[in-house]
Specification:
The complex is a heterodimer. By secondary structure, chain A is mainly α. Chain A has helices spanning about 1-20, 25-50, 60-95, 95-100, 105-115, 120-140, 145-170, 180-185, 200-205, 215-225, 230-255, and strands at about 55, 60. A two-stranded antiparallel sheet of chain A has the order 1-2. In chain A, strand 1 and strand 2 (about 60) form a beta hairpin. Chain B is mostly helical. In chain B, about 75% of the residues lie in helices and about 0% in strands. Chain B has twelve helices and no strands. Chain B starts with 5 loop residues before the first helix and ends in a 9-residue tail after the last helix. Classes of the chains: A mainly alpha, B mainly alpha.
Chain lengths: ~260, ~270
């Protein structure tokens, strides 16, 4: 079963690679534009911290380390899933989901990995470089602790996947599902700043209903040994709850789905 | 070639502006939702940041500014951040990539200018809406109406510069076929250097040359400083002159770049 999915994934990967490099200059420029996004994030904190040394316990180095972990985790999601999630509402509205439902692999799998974005690969490397560069100053010991970074990158990936899934699955009920995607990305602004910058209510929100903290803040606290044990249970609980909601919404959505294609 | 009558030259531009306005109002809920989400999310992030720095951290001064100064900047900047934008340069790229530029080339009006006026129609609506909000706010905040109008003029000039710059970059699509990335890069840089994310006075002095050497500060930072009364008339006139020089330079560069690049264009289609 896993081998079968792996074969399908390899084919999708190959097809997407060819598709991406049809416009190779754009792909290269896109890679640089993604790099610039990271540089802008770093520049933002550089500007802020040139005027202040510490914000609620978050120093300049902590923030840069946070950016490294966030970028690495986000680049994985963007690489493998982001484009497919943007296209998801169209699959439903145009009736193209039919084709995926008839395939001998999970329709969720096909719908969410069908478009891969290779331009993010450099961001992954950049994220890892930032972690390595600023980590020791932020209290990250390296060595075996890299396993914890990998673990949190997977948690970040799973978090974003589930949140994004719950945001797009509404396409079954809405005429155009893009509004919920747009809303998601507006709220996503909460993800790329450490939670120390937020008031208590927002800190609670990004650890529960909108768990953006799982992509940056909590990994930083965890790998520097500052995350309380109860928060690990919270992460597991929130992700399970999200998975359960996603599953219910998908099933109900499919029951409601009426194809418009011939 | 026969010269087109002056009246017609004016008429098509007005028609394009009207068309842009109608298009924006056809989906008026989308227009309003877009306006408010695009305006308030960056503002919300700034307010949270100022709250963290001043209220939670106990800081008194940040980059020489008090909490109230930064709040005033943030709220005032909304009026101009919505005028500065406009992603209609993306339309040009799409036209080049898909070949729909061919149809525009057969028409008696240039595609670059037509797209601008059409997009400008939507921005006029936005500017009018922001101006009304600004006038109401001015009444309560004891600011100058003249400053507000001058600030809005600068923001509109910023919008024109932004489009000209975007249209120059869009010409890359003639060579690369798809050049969305270039415009995305431009938008990211602009978001930081326009003063939309944070006031540019927060930049360390040694880095101030970065924003001073681009025209992007005329989009949001300049108008906000003017509306808040931080700039005198002379300063405003000085920066407007700089803006106009940028505008003219970009207009000339646009002509040269498009004239040269369009030779590469091949519109293949039925």
């Amino acid at each position: 079963m896993i081998a079968h999915y792996w074969d399908v994934f390899k084919t999708i990967f190959k097809n997407n690679f060819v598709k991406e490099f049809i416009y190779r200059m754009n792909a290269i420029a896109m890679t640089f534009s993604d790099l610039i996004w990271v540089i802008i994030e770093l520049a933002f904190f550089e500007v802020i911290y040139s005027n202040i040394s510490n914000i609620n316990g978050w120093s300049r180095v902590d923030c840069f380390f946070f950016i490294g972990i966030f970028v690495a985790s986000d680049s994985l999601f963007t690489m493998f899933f982001q484009r497919s999630f943007w296209e998801f509402p169209m699959l439903v509205n145009r009736g193209d989901l039919d084709v995926l439902l008839t395939k001998p692999v999970s329709a969720v799998f096909l719908a969410t990995v069908k478009s891969i974005n290779f331009t993010q690969s450099l961001n992954l490397l950049l994220g890892i470089w930032i972690i390595q560069h600023y980590g020791p100053k932020a209290g990250f010991e390296g060595g075996i602790a890299w396993l914890a970074v990998i673990f949190w990158m997977i948690v970040g990936l799973a978090t974003q996947f589930l949140m994004r899934f719950v945001s797009v699955v509404w396409a079954f009920w809405l005429e155009r599902g893009f509004t919920t995607s747009a809303l998601y990305y507006q709220l996503y602004a909460l993800a790329n700043k450490p939670s120390g910058l937020y008031p208590t209510a927002i800190r609670f929100l990004i650890k529960t209903a909108l768990p953006f903290a799982f992509m940056g803040t909590m990994p930083v606290l965890s790998v520097t040994g500052r995350l309380p044990l109860s928060d690990y249970f919270l992460v597991a609980g929130v992700l399970l709850a999200y998975a359960w909601i996603a599953r219910i919404l998908w099933k109900r959505g499919l029951n409601r789905y009426q194809s418009a294609s011939s | 070639m026969k010269t087109l009558p002056m009246q017609w030259m004016l008429e098509w531009r007005l028609a394009a502006i009207r068309n842009g306005m109608k298009d924006a109002l056809a989906y008026r809920w989308d227009f309003l939702i877009d306006f408010f989400t695009q305006a308030f999310v960056p503002v919300g992030m700034q307010l949270i940041l100022w709250h963290a720095i001043f209220s939670q951290n106990g800081t008194q001064l940040f980059a020489g500014m008090r909490h109230t100064d930064l709040l005033a900047y943030t709220w005032t900047s909304i009026l101009f951040s919505q005028v500065r934008g406009g992603n209609y340069d993306f339309t040009l790229i799409e036209m080049i990539r898909t070949g729909s530029l061919s149809q525009s080339l057969l028409k008696p009006v240039g595609p670059v200018e037509f797209i601008f006026w059409r997009g400008f129609g939507e921005k006029i609506l936005t500017a009018a809406f922001c101006l009304i909000v600004g006038i109401i706010a001015t009444y309560f905040a004891d600011r100058s109406l003249v400053n507000l109008f001058l600030a809005m003029m600068m923001a509109i000039l910023g919008n024109i510069i932004h489009y000209l710059f975007g249209a120059i970059l869009a010409a890359v699509a003639f060579h690369w076929e798809n050049a969305f990335a270039i415009l995305l890069m431009k938008n990211m840089v602009v978001s930081l250097l326009s003063g939309e994310a944070v006031p540019l006075t927060v930049f360390p002095v040694k880095y101030a040359w970065i924003w001073e050497s681009t025209p992007f500060y005329l989009y949001v930072f300049g108008p906000t400083q003017m509306a808040l009364g931080k700039w005198s008339m002379q300063t405003w006139a000085h920066h407007m002159t700089i803006g106009m020089v940028w505008c003219m330079a970009f207009a000339v560069l646009l002509q040269v770049v498009w004239k040269k690049s369009i030779r590469q264009y091949q519109g293949i289609g039925g």
